[in-house]
Amino acid sequence: MKSCCEQAGAPAPRGPLRRLLSYLLYAVVVAALGFMLWQQWQA
């Protein structure tokens, strides 16, 4: 299995950049879940 970065031909990020991208991904997932729960609560 190849990651999206490898398929695009870009080098895999290393060190702090990779950690920052993983934190950003988690933040997006948490924000999406929180938004869905908020929408349920508003309804």
Q: What do you see in this structure?
A:
It is a single chain. By secondary structure, the protein is an all-alpha fold. It contains two helices and no strands. The protein is rod-shaped, with a radius of gyration of 15 Å. The mean pLDDT is 81.
Top keywords for this entry?
2 helices; mainly alpha; membrane; 0% strand; 43 residues; transmembrane helix
Helix content: over 70%
In DSSP terms (H or I, runs of 4 or more residues), the helix count works out at 2
Over the alpha carbons, how many angstroms does the gyration radius reach? 15 Å
Main beta-sheet strand count, sense and barrel state: none
Q: Catalogue the unreliable spans.
A: none
Report how far the terminal alpha carbons are from each other: 41 Å
Strand coverage percent: under 5%
Task: Name the average pLDDT.
Answer: 81
Q: What structural class do the secondary elements suggest? A: mainly alpha
According to DSSP, the number of beta strands is 0
